[in-house]
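User: Can you predict the 3D structure for this chain?
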Amino acid sequence: MAEQESISSSKKKLSRGQFLSIAWFGALGLLFLQSVFVLVRFLKPVSTGGFGGWLYAGTVEEFSSGSVNHVLSGRFYISRLEDGMLAMYQKCTHLGCAVPWEDNKDQFHCPCHGSLFNRVGEVEGGPAPRPMDLFPIEIRGDEVWVDTSQPIERSRFEPTQLTQV
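Assistant: Here is the predicted structure, written as structure tokens:
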């Protein structure tokens, strides 16, 4: 019996207040760890591909001569001319609006302030100060790849800007 008293006295009972304190700090610790995990995932880059890097636009055959095709994932248009291709950023050089291609008018029309651009991105009207920006194109076999990491500003269209196909 003396042994049982010594065993039970060596086992300390946890009071309700102590249990609630441990549970409270444990929950706060888990919340902190979860917040750190979410923050790290938020700050980590989503992918190495897509806008801001090299992007696969399609095969050369997909872009017929005289066509303007929108590549949504890259936020650019591919304009195919007889002499080559241009990849133009969809952003208006006036205030940065997305500029859609109007096939029936054979022009890009900025819906915000009325800037007009032709199929090589030159300004034909409106407040835009310069032509649409370009992205470099690389032809790898029969695939068209576009580097969207650094838009190229230009003052006018020159045939040397075309990527030969």
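DSSP finds two helices and eleven strands in the chain. The two ends are 97 Å apart (CA to CA).
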